[in-house]
């Protein structure tokens, strides 16, 4: 935005704000003079306020429950529709993740044909490792698949073992 245009916008806003302030001040000063011409009526005898009954308490309780129900229903719908806007296969996909602290996570992400191991913390994402071979997530009950010749591979291919190896544990 050019500087002259920005300055003219600021001047316009300042002039409008000053005009509104002057108008409100004039109304505040004129109000006592306008209403002083009217005679004040004597106060009416005070009536006793209506007692709060069980009906009004029930109405307030039901209204509160209705509002809380709407809030919880909206949260449920939001959770169910989290992936609703995604059409087709995305080039970026989260394979698996694991919590390593209160707010820290390690995430395995597939980008095209390459997989990245990312460390995610509040306000920060770091690349921990770029995997040479894609890792397929396994269920906890499965073990490392033996190689074609029957020998166990030197490095396991499950996510938990790769994470431990990359962290030096």
Report on this model:
It is a single chain. With 169 residues, the protein is of the alpha+beta class. 41% of the residues lie in helices and 18% in strands. The mean pLDDT is 77.
Strand order of the largest sheet: 1-2-3-4
Query: Which regions have little confidence, pLDDT < 50, spanning 5+ residues?
Result: none
Q: Helix fraction?
A: 40-55%
The total beta strand count reads 4
Total helices: the number is 3
Shape type: elongated
SSE string: HHEEEEH
Main β sheet profile: 4 strands, antiparallel
Structural class: alpha+beta
Radius of gyration: 34 Å
| Mean residue pLDDT | 77
The span between the termini is 54 Å
Q: Into which percentage range does the β-strand content fall? A: 15-25%
């Amino acid at each position: 935005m050019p500087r002259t245009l920005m300055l003219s916008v600021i001047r316009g806003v300042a002039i409008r704000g000053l005009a509104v302030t002057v108008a409100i001040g004039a109304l505040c000063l004129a109000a006592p003079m306008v209403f002083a011409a009217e005679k004040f009526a004597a106060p009416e005898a005070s009536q006793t306020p209506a007692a709060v009954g069980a009906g009004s308490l029930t109405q307030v309780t039901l209204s509160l429950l209705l509002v809380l129900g709407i809030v919880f229903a909206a949260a449920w719908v939001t959770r169910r529709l989290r992936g609703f806007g995604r059409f087709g296969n995305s080039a970026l996909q989260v394979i698996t993740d694991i919590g390593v602290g209160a707010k820290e996570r390690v995430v395995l992400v597939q980008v095209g044909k390459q997989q990245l191991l990312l460390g995610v913390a509040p306000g920060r994402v770091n690349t921990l490792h770029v995997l040479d071979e894609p890792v397929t997530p396994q269920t906890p009950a499965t073990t490392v698949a033996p190689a074609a010749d029957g020998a166990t591979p030197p490095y396991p291919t499950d996510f938990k073992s790769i994470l431990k190896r990359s962290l030096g544990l």
